[in-house]
Amino acid sequence: MTELKSGPGKTKENDQVTTETPRRQPTLDEVAERAGVSRSAASRVINNAPHVSRAKREAVRRAVDDLGYVPNATARALATQQAGSVVLAISGDDPGMFADPFFAEVVVGVNSVLEETELELMLSLATSSRGQARLEQLLRTRQADGVMLMSLHGDDPLAALAANASVPVVFGGHPLNFEPRYYVDADNRGGARLATEHLVAAGRRRIATITGRLDEGAGMARLQGFQDALAVAGLDNTLVENGEFREDGGSIAMTKLLDRAPDLDAVFIASDQMAIGALRVLARAGRDVPGDVSIVGFNDITSARHTEPPLTTVNQPIHALGREMARMLLALMSGDQPSPLILPTQLVIRSSV
Amino acid sequence: MTELKSGPGKTKENDQVTTETPRRQPTLDEVAERAGVSRSAASRVINNAPHVSRAKREAVRRAVDDLGYVPNATARALATQQAGSVVLAISGDDPGMFADPFFAEVVVGVNSVLEETELELMLSLATSSRGQARLEQLLRTRQADGVMLMSLHGDDPLAALAANASVPVVFGGHPLNFEPRYYVDADNRGGARLATEHLVAAGRRRIATITGRLDEGAGMARLQGFQDALAVAGLDNTLVENGEFREDGGSIAMTKLLDRAPDLDAVFIASDQMAIGALRVLARAGRDVPGDVSIVGFNDITSARHTEPPLTTVNQPIHALGREMARMLLALMSGDQPSPLILPTQLVIRSSV
DNA sequence: CATCGCACTGGGAGCGCTTCCAAAATCAGT
DNA sequence: ACTGATTTTGGAAGCGCTCCCAGTGCGATG
Prior knowledge:
Organism (chains A, B): Kribbella koreensis
Region (Disordered) (chains A, B): 1-36
CATH topology of the largest domain in chain A: Rossmann fold
Shape of chain A: elongated
Strand content of chain A: 5-15%
Oligomer: homodimer
Number of domains of chain A: 3
Pfam family, one (chains A, B): Peripla_BP_3
GO molecular function (chains A, B): DNA binding
Strand order of the largest sheet of chain A: 2-1-3-4-5-11
Helix content of chain A: 40-55%
CATH architecture of the largest domain in chain A: 3-Layer(aba) Sandwich
Order of helices and strands of chain A: HHHHEHEHEHEEHEHEHEHEEHEE
CATH superfamily of the largest domain in chain A: Response regulator
CATH class of the largest domain in chain A: Alpha Beta
Domain HTH lacI-type (chains A, B): 26-80
C-alpha cells in the first residue's frame, strides 16, 4: 500500500470520475458573480452593513438562496480575528469529575443563552496536565473568544493563566487564592448558614460538620457559613471533620465524628453524596435520623429525595449558574464590565431534621 | 465619547502610548525571519515535514521557543480545510434532557480519547429547532471535521442531515428509522433479555414491563429484549405499559399496570428513574418488593443503590460508549471503515428481585 | 453652472498558514 | 571535472472572508 505518496492524479481533476457531485460549498465570490455585484457588496449584504442599494441587496439575497450559500466560519474568523466560539473549561485533578450531574446542568444553563447567539460552545475538561496545556493554547491562539472557568481548586495553574489571558474570563464559583474580577457563584456560605440555623432552630446543640475539600472555594465557604451560624448561636464549632466529596468520604468522616463526639445530635454535611455515606454509618451505628441526630446536606441532588429518610438539603440554582456565567461572558465580550454575581441558595426541607 | 469613530492615530503606531505590551502572538513569518529561513521552511519544521536541513530545523526550533510561537489554528484550518474539531451533538425535544447524568458520562468517555489528539470538542445541544439549524450549518460550513450524534428519536430531522453530511458521522445508539452506517450502541436488547430472564429464573410468571419512549431505539430495543425472554419462557408478554423516561412516568404506568393486572408478580422497567416512581406506587399500594413483586430497572444510575429496596438493574458501559464513539469517529476520519459496535450490558443484582 | 456632500461601488490588501513548483544546492557516479 | 539524480529552498498562489479607500455618480447648494 502506498501510503504517504500522493496519488498520481491531482485532486482537482478527478471530478468526472464519480458522477456524484460532492458539491463544494459556494463561496462569496460565486454569490457576488451570480448577483452581478462585487464581492465587497455581497459581503455587506451578508453582514447587513449599510451602503448597498436596494436592488443589489436583493440580487445578492436571491443569489444566496439559489446557491444555498453559507459563509465559511473559518475564513470569517481569520479575517475578523474572532473565533466565534467560547469555551467552558472544567478544571480539576479528577478526570471523571465532570461526570457529576452538577456540570451537566451548568452546561444546559450555558447552552440556553448561547443558543440565542452565533457562538459555538467548546468543552474543555482540563483534568490532565495535557488538557490544561491544550486549554492554554486554545486561549493563546485565540481559538475562542471567551472562557468560563469552573472548579479550580487550591493552587490551580489555570487561575494564573486565566488572569492574563487575552480573552475575557468569567469564573464559575469563587476560587480561594485570589479575587477574580468576574465571577458568578452560588451563595454557599449563606446556604450553609441557613442549613446550620435550621439545625439550631430544631433545638440541636451538639452540631458537627463534615466539610468538603477545603482547597476549593465552595468547600471553604460552606464551612464558614456553618461557623457563622454557630457563632451567632454561641455554640461549639470545633466538631469539624473533613472528607472527600464522595460517598465514602462521608462514611469515613462520620465514623470519626461519632468517635470523637458520641453525643453529637446534628451534622451539617457539605454535599449530599457525603450525606448518603454518613447516613449509612449512622444507620449502622443504630442512631435514628432525625430522632437521635439531624442531618442537612448540600446540593439537592436527585438521590437526596430517595435516601432513608429523605434528606433535608440546600439547593443551589445550577442552571442559573450556567446561564449567568454565559450572560456575564457575553457582556464582557461586548465591552461591558459586569459586577460579580452571587446566586441565592435555598433550604429544602425534607425529613432528616 | 467618540465611539465608532476610529481614533486619529493608526492602530499600529500607538505602541509607545502604553508601556505595557499586550504582545500580539508571533506569526510564522516572524519565526522564519528570526531563524533566517523562509516561511515555507519554517512551516515544514512546525509540521515536521521532510526536506529541511538539520541546521535550519534547529534554528527554527530555537526561534519558536524564543518567541513562544504557537500556530494560529484558524489560519491553519483555513489553509488545510480542516477544522481541527469534532462535535458531540445531543438531539432531542427536551432542552433539559442533557441534564441526564448519562450524557455527562458519555462526554467524559469522549473526552478521554480526544484528549490524546489535537481535536477540540464542541458541544451542540440541538434541542430547539434553532439549535438544529445551527448544527446543520456547523456541518455544512465544515466547522467540524466529524460528528457524534446521540439520541435521535423517531422522526428526527437530524438523521437525514447526518446521512448526507460531508463529514463523518457516528451515531450513539441505534436510531429506529434507518440503519446508520456507523454507530456504537449498548446491547439494550440483550440487557433487557437478561433482566427478564432473571425475573423468570426467580420463579415469576406474571411479568409486566414499563417501556420508555418507543420512538427511540433504546426504548424499543428494551421492549424487544423483554419479549424475547418471555417468548422463550412461554409466558404472556402483553402486560406492557409505556411511560415517559421520568420518575412520574414510572408512577403513572405502574398505577395503570396494577389496575390492569393486580396479580402481577414482577415488572421489568426500562429506566431506573421510572423504577423509582414505580417503587413508590408499589409501596403505597402495600405491595412488598421483592416479596410480592420483583422489580428490575435499567441504567444503574447512582440513585439505584439507595432506593428501598436497592434496585436490581442493568448496567451499561456509558463511559465506554463515549470512548468508542470517539474512537470510531477518529477511525473514520483517518479513512478507515470501522464496523458498528455493540457494547455489552450487565445485570447488577441487588435486592429488588 | 460650478461646487460640495453623500450614499454607493468595487478593487485590493490583508488575516496566518499550507503547499505547489521551479530554481538552487548537494550528492553520487563515472 | 562533468552529468544526472536527489534534496533543499523560498517565492508565490491560494484558502474565503472583511474592510479600508479611492473613485463614481447624483442631487443639493450657492
